[in-house]
Amino acid sequence: MEMDFTTLVVVIISVFVVDVNGIMWKLQPNVQKCLKEELQSDVLVTGDYEVQDAPGQKVDYVVRDSKGHILSQKEDISRGKFSFVTENYDSFEICFISRVPPQQRGIAQEVSLVTKRGVEAKNYEGLGEAAKLKPLEVELKRLEDLSDAIVQDFSQMRRREEEMRDTNESTNSRVLYFSIFSMCCLLGLATWQVLYLRRFFKAKKLIE
C-alpha cells in the first residue's frame, strides 16, 4: 500500500510540473515564423518538428539567442529533432523559414513543433536502463530532478525580484533628488525675478 501511495504522489506531481509545449500552425510561402521564450541558464531544450510536404518548396529552421548566436540550424527539413543547452539567462527564438522558387506559386505548409525543456527533455528511460534502475527508482530520480529545478526557479525568481526592488529604490531616489533640484531651481528663478523686477521698478521710479 505504501508503494502504491508513493507511486501515486510521483505521478500527480509529475503531471503538474511537466513542461512540454506543442504547437501547430500554417506556414505561408516565403514567410518566417518565430517562437520566442526566455530560459534560465544551463537548461536542456529539445524539439520534435514535422513539416507538411509541398513539391518544390523548402523549409529551414534556425535557433538563435538574443545576440544572434546560432544554437541549431538545418535546411530543407521535413521531420526531425534538435537540442541545445542554454549558457546564460536569455531570450531564445526558434524560426521556421519557407522558401519557394520565384516561378512557383507556393502553398501554406502545416508545421508542428513539440518542445521540452529541463527535466522533461532528459531521457530517463535510457538512464534507467544504463544504471539498471527499477521503474519506481527512475520516477523518483525524475522527481528529485524536478524538485531541484523548482528550487532553482524559485531562487531565480527571488534574485530577479531583488534586482527589480533595487532598481525601483534607485529610481525613486533619483526622482526624489531631481524633484528637490527642480524645486531649488524654481525658487532661485523666482527670487531672481522678484529682485530684478524690484530693481527695474525702482529705476523707473515706480516704487521707492
Q: What structural keywords apply?
A:
disordered N terminus, four-stranded antiparallel beta sheet, alpha+beta, single chain, Jelly Rolls, 3 helices, 208 residues
Describe this structure in words.
One of its GO terms (cellular component) is membrane. It comes from Cryptotermes secundus. Residues 32-142 form the GOLD domain. Keywords: Developmental protein, Membrane, Signal, Transmembrane, Transmembrane helix. With 208 residues, the protein is of the alpha+beta class. It has a domain at 19-122: Sandwich (Jelly Rolls). The strands form two sheets. It has a four-stranded antiparallel beta sheet, with no helix packed on it. Strands 2-7-4-5 form a four-stranded antiparallel beta sheet, with no helix packed on it. It has three helices and eight strands. The chain has helices spanning 2-17, 124-131, 135-203; strands at 20-27, 32-39, 44-51, 58-65, 70-74, 79-85, 90-99, 109-117.
CATH class type of the domain at 19-122: Mainly Beta
Radius of gyration: 31 Å
Give the terminus-to-terminus CA distance: 104 Å
Main β sheet profile: 4 strands, antiparallel
Strand order of the largest sheet: 1-8-3-6
- The level of helicity is 40-55%
Average pLDDT figure: 82
Task: Spell the H/E element sequence.
Answer: HEEEEEEEEHH
Overall 3D form: elongated
**Total beta-strand segments:** 8
Structural class: alpha+beta
- Helices, by number, come to 3
* CATH architecture field of the domain at 19-122: Sandwich
Main location: membrane
InterPro entries: Emp24-like, GOLD_dom
GO cellular component, one term: membrane
Transmembrane segments: 175-197
